[in-house]
Amino acid sequence: MTNAENRGLHYEESLLWEKEQGDTSGVDLPPLENMPSRTGVEQRKTIGLPQLSEPEIVRHFVRMSTWNYSIDHGFFPLGSCTMKHNPRLNEKVARLSGFAHAHPMQPVSTAQGALELMHELQHWLAELTGLPGVCLSPAAGAHGELAGMMTIARAHEQQGNAHKKIILTPDSSHGTNPATAVMCGYEVRSISTKGTGRLTVEAFKEALYKTDDKGADIAGMMVTNPNTCGLFETNILEISDLLHEAGGYFYCDGANFNAVVGKVRPADFGADVMHINLHKTFSTPHGGGGPGSGPICCTEELAQYMPVPTVIKAEDGSYALEGVDDRPTTLGVLKAFQGQFGMHVRALSYMMSHGADGLQQVSEDAVLNANYVLKQLSDDYHVPFDGPCMHECLLTDKKQKEYGVSTLDIAKALVEYGYHPMTIYFPLVLQGTMLIEPTETESKETLDSFIETMKNIAADARDGRADKFHDFPVSSPRKRLDEVKAARKPVLRWKEVA
Ligand SMILES: *Cc1c(COP(=O)(O)O)cnc(C)c1O
């Protein structure tokens, strides 16, 4: 590494092992005297850690941290992920020492405030979904799906319905849906949404009554609403009625709750169990920015089967965590202790600071922003489904393909022009999809400048400048990767060059 690679205060960074110089040591300890080795032949000369000083190591990690693009850098329109701003107020509350330093093993009598907070969060989630049974412990959306589907499986098992082996799910569903159903021992039957982007009653009936036993083999369905095409399932009431008639349960994937929170209670369109991604709808940090959290909500009937613990309030006003002994019908414990408590604090802080009317405005603004982007880009990009969208809009590369520019090229061009790309090639029901979710937290100015960039990209493709796309990005520290090679021959281990 030479300083020539660190230009304009943008730092390249080699591995710590590559930085290490010769036979130096990062620490200065006096040699040990009169201390015979007790490790004998096992004694090691080195443990292979790079020998660098503290400032060198601090710089290494701080420089690398600046390579992470985040929602705090700029616009992050990743569809299906709800990358919204996380208000700093939530962080402040989560750092209050009574919350931050609570320990899951401390006596319940000394953690009453923390339990009250969880009880209050359960209450808000029950109100917003219309589903009174709440378990906060699942650690992410996918984990919530597992908790919810295990709850359904447990209910069928306890009710003598072990013959119900099929879970229905639309072909546009998020990959975690069929994966979860299979993990719970079910067979997945896909419902076609081809050409419509929505569930139709006809396609649903076709899947429900595929074998001629009037749906007796159907254990349930997993449906995201609004769905992964950014559309509200307008036939959901009729569909959930048909499902319930056949004795199936409706698992609602609540990852898109941001579009309807405060407007629609999923219980009212037939949901029996639902997970909520606190890190999407209720603004707690995502993945690498902090652990996620995926509580589930369910009907009173199913609540007896869902995992423990739930926080319960005794008649004397004290709070306790319900265990297996308190609710013997439960499927058991799915996650250590009570789940990601820090996320519970942030989510409740977000809910209470917005209030009921503020949460309604969240969904209204999220939908407005997505429709603004959709409308502004609908001349330049192919819009596969007519009419307004919910909180995210779906485009495809059909028009650009004619000029030799693909969705991947458009995503890489966005990187070149300083934007995190949208979600690409998902959902899988169409070719070359681009799913854009601006969220309610972006200003009109940000949206306008993103729209202008997207329009310029479309114009470049139209005007015969397709060639320039194939090398994009050219200004980023890592240029265009060979995606196929990266997937087929990943280099996962550093080897010293001899
Ligand atoms: C994000 C998402 C999930 C999974 O949630 P994680 O918290 O990432 O595990 C499931 N379904 C849909 C529709 C999603 O968008």
Strand order of the largest sheet: 1-7-6-5-4-2-3
Distance N to C terminus: 17 Å
| Strand and helix order | HHHHHEHEHEHEHEEHEHEEHEHHEEHH
CATH topology of the largest domain: Aspartate Aminotransferase, domain 2
Characterize the biggest β-sheet: 7 strands, mixed
DSSP helix count?
A: 16
The overall pLDDT average reads 93
Radius of gyration: 26 Å
- How many β strands by DSSP? 12
Structural class, from secondary structure content? alpha/beta
At CATH level 2, the architecture of the largest domain is 3-Layer(aba) Sandwich
Helix content: 25-40%
Mind telling me the CATH class of the largest domain?
Answer: Alpha Beta
Look at the structure and name the CATH superfamily of the largest domain: Type I PLP-dependent aspartate aminotransferase-like (Major domain)
Q: What's the structural domain tally?
A: 3
Which descriptor suits the 3D outline?
Answer: globular
Q: What tags apply to this protein structure?
A:
498 residues; alpha/beta; Aspartate Aminotransferase, domain 2; Aspartate Aminotransferase, domain 1; 3 domains; 7-stranded mixed beta sheet; 3-stranded antiparallel beta sheet; 12 strands; 35% helix; globular; binds pyridoxal-5'-phosphate
What do these coordinates show?
The chain is α/β, with parallel strands linked by helices. It folds into 3 domains: 1-67, no CATH class; 88-351, 3-Layer(aba) Sandwich (Aspartate Aminotransferase, domain 2); 367-486, Aspartate Aminotransferase, domain 1 (Alpha-Beta Complex). 35% of the residues lie in helices and 9% in strands. The chain contains 16 helices and 12 strands. The protein has helices at residues 16-19, 54-65, 88-94, 97-100, 112-129, 141-158, 176-183, 201-208, 236-245, 278-281, 300-303, 341-377, 398-401, 407-416, 444-462, 483-488; strands at 133-135, 166-170, 187-191, 218-224, 249-253, 273-275, 296-298, 311-313, 319-321, 393-396, 423-424, 433-436. The chain has a 7-stranded mixed sheet, sandwiched between helices. A hairpin with an 8-residue loop joins strand 11 and strand 12 (433-436). The radius of gyration is 26 Å and the shape is globular. The two termini are 17 Å apart. The structure holds pyridoxal-5'-phosphate (PLP). Residues 80-81, 140-142, 174, 176, 224, 228, 253, 255, 277, 292, 294 line the site of pyridoxal-5'-phosphate.
